[in-house]
Design goal:
Blueprint lengths: L2 E5 L5 E5 L4 H19 L5 H22 L6 H10 L8 H18 L11 H11 L20 E3 L4 E3 L5 H15 L2 H4 L3 H15 L6 H15 L9 H7 L1 H13 L6 H40 L5 H11 L6 E3 H6 L3 H5 L4 H13 L3 E4 L2 E4 L8
Antiparallel strand pairs: 1-2, 3-4, 5-7, 6-7
Length: about 375
């Protein structure tokens, strides 16, 4: 672990650092690694994986745009993503979403490689050009470095920071950035750690007039994607948005650290990886359990252990949220239950529910019934 000090013309000394307290980071890195290997090996159908990835991209685009002040709701973002390529957007906020959609589509289509992916200046500028394409701004030129003073941050999140001030300094530091992030020592780090360092230092240089955060998070995702890491390239922006105050604070703390110690930022990043993967694991297991239960219910019907009506009730519940509940009254009055129970007596309905409860296919709480999603555990 080391730091690289670069003296600029007008902006003073700039530090590139991969200094980390390994004793603090290793337990979380091990937890992340074990969890990732578990999630990676979980089977998921191709069609479901595609649907799942599309949902993750929508959430990530919404989150990374919202962090930069885009006020569009997630539903509106989803509509823009769906309409991408079918219509021209005139509103600046809609254009931002359209641009992010193209950027994340680029990441999605990338294929993993067997060696660390090298980040070039040209590539960083191309991502920025996509992100800020056709956005009117007095202070930003898509794909081009700024040549004016900017201030970043606020007192609430660790104070205001003045990034490198002039174009020659930014040009120098971006060349140094590409050389450092592709250096032997950094390339030999875990790709997750390298991705976080690439994100942090690009944000620290702040080379563009606008879109720096979005570009840094995309570059992070690219490194993860090229390393063959699933899900995280399109999940971490949602974690950053959900924990936006801490995100800005740990960034500021790392920037001001006298020893240039990146431990706090990396710890925050790994926590995001773990939380994101835990959510992914829960979702995938949910779908696996759902498909397995569907097959089990068919078996129970085909062997006449349960009736056709009882089978259809279980399928209706299987299509609902895993926390959904219903009452006896709702069987007769609420869709879609009443389609199956409109001609059935209350006594028969009670008998159905009682049987399914005894088989531990349903759970009860007072007069409320739930599908027992873990009914196979005891078999």
């Amino acid at each position: 672990m080391a730091v690289r000090k670069v003296m600029t013309f007008k902006s003073g000394k700039f530090i590139f650092s991969d200094s980390i307290t390994t004793e603090e980071i290793n337990p979380k890195l091990i937890e992340y690694t074990i969890l990732y290997e578990t999630v990676r090996d979980l089977p998921i159908l191709p069609a479901l994986a595609t649907k799942f990835e599309s949902e993750l991209i929508r959430r990530s685009i919404y989150s990374t745009a919202a962090m930069e002040g885009n006020p569009l709701a997630e539903e509106a973002v989803g509509a823009i993503i769906t309409a991408q390529g079918k219509q021209d957007f005139k509103n600046t906020r809609e254009k931002e979403i359209g641009n992010l959609t193209r950027a994340y589509t680029t990441v999605k289509r990338m294929k993993p490689i067997n060696e660390p992916y090298k980040i070039t200046e040209k590539f960083v500028r191309s991502i920025h050009e996509v992100i800020t394409h056709d956005i009117d701004s007095e202070y930003n030129s898509p794909g081009n470095y700024r040549n004016h003073l900017v201030k970043v941050g606020d007192k609430t999140h660790g104070g205001v920071y003045t990034p490198p001030k002039i174009l020659p300094d930014i040009q120098q530091l971006m060349k140094e950035y590409a050389g450092w992030i592709n250096s032997h020592d950094v390339l030999n780090l875990s790709p997750t750690i390298r991705a976080a360092l690439a994100h942090f230092h690009l944000g620290l240089i702040h080379p563009f007039g606008d879109g720096n955060g979005r570009t840094a998070r995309i570059i992070e995702g690219v490194i993860l994607k090229k390393a063959g890491i699933k899900y995280l390239p399109t999940m971490l922006s949602n974690y950053y948005y959900t924990n936006i105050d801490e995100y800005f604070t740990v960034f500021s703390d790392a920037r001001k650290n006298k020893h240039h110690d990146m431990t706090g930022f990396i710890d925050f990043f790994l926590t995001g990886c773990i939380q994101s993967l835990s959510e992914i694991k829960r979702r995938i297991i949910y779908f696996i359990r759902k498909f397995t239960l569907r097959d089990y219910f068919v078996y129970l019907r085909d062997t006449r252990i349960i009736s056709n009506r009882q089978h259809e009730l279980l399928l209706l519940l299987l299509e609902k949220d895993e926390h959904s509940s219903f009452s006896l009254k709702e069987l007769f009055n609420e869709m879609p239950f009443k389609i199956k129970y409109s001609g059935v007596s209350e006594r028969t309905a009670r008998r159905d529910l009682s049987k399914l409860e005894k088989m531990e296919l349903l759970k009860t709480e007072g007069t409320t019934y739930y599908l027992n999603w873990r009914s196979l555990d005891a078999i």
